[in-house]
Design brief:
This protein is of the alpha/beta class. The chain has 14 helices and ten strands. Strand 6, helix 6 and strand 7 form a beta-alpha-beta unit.
Length: about 325
């Protein structure tokens, strides 16, 4: 009888312990980032212990290209990622269940997020001079969307430029600076580094709809781990406020872990990070119209299908 009691207690103990395993796992989040400045809030939150004090374990996974990040999204290897409205719309058209929980940054009159640049020595001085020239970008990404939009504004047809597929952002920068392409579309901070080293800015995304950098999450994770999502959102929001209150304070951290190039650390300025907010319907529509022009299926692209207000309601 005594042996039975011991055995019974062991079984109860194991069952009880197993009940807490899902809760521990629910607090683990894998975030996918690219070599862009929008990774800074996650770095700050991690460095300052904001995630840990919120009971979260956050792993930041870096990718060199949007293709690598999207492969991780489609395989379920990450729960959330830094993305853009176009990119998440393309995933949604393939029925990949990720949605936007907040804007991260938007272009301003003082600083674009994505820039079309001419290589040093190319002699190009404006977008309209790209006719017949090669431009490095990654197709079906925000880089192509910005490029096409700026070409259209200047009256150029899309097929009047020669698009060179260069998916990895660092390689695209290198090819631009070495003159292997006459022009390229780059995100910050590599755009500022290119200009610092002699490239010429031809145009940027300020004024274009749908170019916001956004934070996206797996819908099943949002539903299953809503409480974890709220805690993560509050830690993220706290990091954003810390950055916006004193942007200069984070320059060394940006150099060390945020991929801000050392040569421009003393002159580079950050765009303010957005409060918790979701894109407007007209911004979604602008991207949808571009996709339709490319022949993509867009029937599933709606404002309600692309955004999730879990943070708007629970964090802001």
């Amino acid at each position: 009888m005594k042996r039975f009691s011991v055995f019974f207690c062991l079984i109860i103990g194991l069952i009880t312990a197993s009940m807490f395993i899902p809760n521990a796992e629910a607090s683990s989040i894998r975030m996918g980032v690219l070599p862009i400045l929008e990774s800074l809030p996650f770095i700050v939150a991690q460095e300052r212990g904001l995630f840990q004090s919120s009971g979260l374990k956050v792993e930041i996974v870096s990718f060199a290209s949007a293709l690598e990040r999207d492969s991780a999204i489609q395989s379920g290897a990450i729960h959330g990622a830094i993305h853009d409205i176009l990119g998440i719309s393309l995933l949604r058209s393939k029925e990949i269940p990720f949605t936007i929980v907040t804007n991260m940054t938007v272009p301003t009159s003082k600083k674009d997020l994505f820039v079309v640049l001419a290589s040093p020595g190319s002699g190009l001085k404006g977008i309209e001079e790209l006719r017949g020239s090669e431009i490095g970008l990654s197709s079906h990404t925000i880089a192509e969307y910005v490029t096409d939009s700026l070409l259209s504004i200047k009256g150029l047809k899309i097929d009047e430029v020669k698009k060179v597929e260069v998916k990895k952002i660092p390689l695209r920068f290198q090819m631009l600076m070495e003159g292997k392409v006459k022009a390229a579309t780059l995100p910050e901070p590599l755009a500022s580094l290119a200009i610092f080293q002699g490239a010429r800015k031809l145009g940027g995304d300020y004024g274009l709809k749908g170019t916001q950098v956004v934070l996206v999450f797996q819908e099943s994770f949002i539903r299953a781990e809503s409480e974890t999502m709220i805690r993560f959102g509050r830690a993220y929001g706290q990091a954003v406020r810390m950055i916006n209150e004193d942007p200069l304070r984070w320059r060394e951290l940006l150099v060390e872990k945020g991929r801000l190039p050392t040569p421009i650390k003393d002159i580079f300025t950050l765009n303010p990070f957005s409060d918790i907010q979701i894109p407007r319907p007209e911004e979604i529509q602008a991207v949808k119209t571009w996709m339709e022009g490319k022949g993509f299926e867009t029937s599933k692209i709606t404002h309600s299908s692309l955004v999730n207000d879990v943070w708007v309601k629970g964090v802001r």
